[in-house]
Amino acid sequence: xxxxxxxxxxxxxxxxxxxxxxxxxxxxxxxxxxxxxxxxxxxxxxxxxxxxxxxxxxxxxxxxxxxxxxxxxxxxxxxxxxxxxxxxxxxxxxxxxxxxxxxxxxxxxxxxxxxxxxxxxxxxxxxxxxxxxxxxxxxxxxxxxxxxxxxxxxxxxxxxxxxxxxxxxxxxxxxxxxxxxxxxxxxxxxxxxxxxxxxxxxxxxxxxxxxxxxxxxxxxxxxxxxxxxxxxxxxxxxxxxxxxxxxxxxxxxxxxxxxxxxxxxxxxxxxxxxxxxxxxxxxxxxxxxxxxxxxxxxxxxxxxxxxxxxxxxxxxxxxxxxxxxxxxxxxxxxxxxxxxxxxxxxxxxxxxxxxxxxx
Length: 359
What we know:
This protein is of the alpha/beta class. The protein has helices at residues 20-29, 35-45, 60-69, 141-156, 177-188, 208-217, 232-238, 241-244, 247-261, 279-289, 315-327, 348-355; strands at residues 76-82, 88-93, 99-107, 110-114, 118-120, 135-138, 162-167, 200-204, 222-226, 265-271, 296-301, 331-334. α4 runs parallel beside α5.
């Protein structure tokens, strides 16, 4: 099935849009010595400058040419909220006045950044705030990268660093696949931000063709699947994407991924009171996932969204659900909630912002 990738029309590319290899090609095409590409990359990701005029070991003629042909991503901070648990959530405005969200989460093992890949989302999950206004456009690679650079610039002030990344913000990453892969190449490059591959997780709602495609990339990056139901009928009700890529096809794609890569998949399961959280749902889910020897289920108490009618599963029922999975030899954990006091779940802050007439 065709997967479209609609991106904003740009006058010229962003400096962050290019991988090191693409910078090397650009440098060669412009008659500059090859080492200049590495210098540009270092200025962008190690020194984290905000303009070409700061790249002081480049000739002025080259700096001028860069300024003529490339832009820096504009992420204007519209709002910044800090939770009592240390979570920091940003609402950024892009150059076209659309808004996106980025979250920094504090863990005992380091700082994790949750990035957005699209302005809005067309997947249509019925419990998610990100889908309320549909898909506006895809982000460019540079607009995704800029979110991590911004987070790192904030952490620079305290001598900390971004230690992990989750691609779980607004949007469906596998519907902006090329930009996502460029983002990943820059994140893991030793001369880029140098984030370990196993410290990066990408989450998809189940875009089946690109699960196969991602398996062929042969990376060490973690894959998470938003499953949220144990069968085709219920999943189609909760996640319209299941009508495009049915449950059986999704499970088959996941089995291929595991066989091809030898890596574990995390299955994300948002628990909704009286909808998908009953013991029979847990039993059925366990039967589905028994075919995955390394499967891990991340149970997520659903976030309250005023435009939706779902309620949270009770604490006792969450533990019952987890216990049933584990009794069936399916590993399950309950996600630790972060940033609830600042609407840190993806799409919530942008939705409030849009109510005021913004984009």
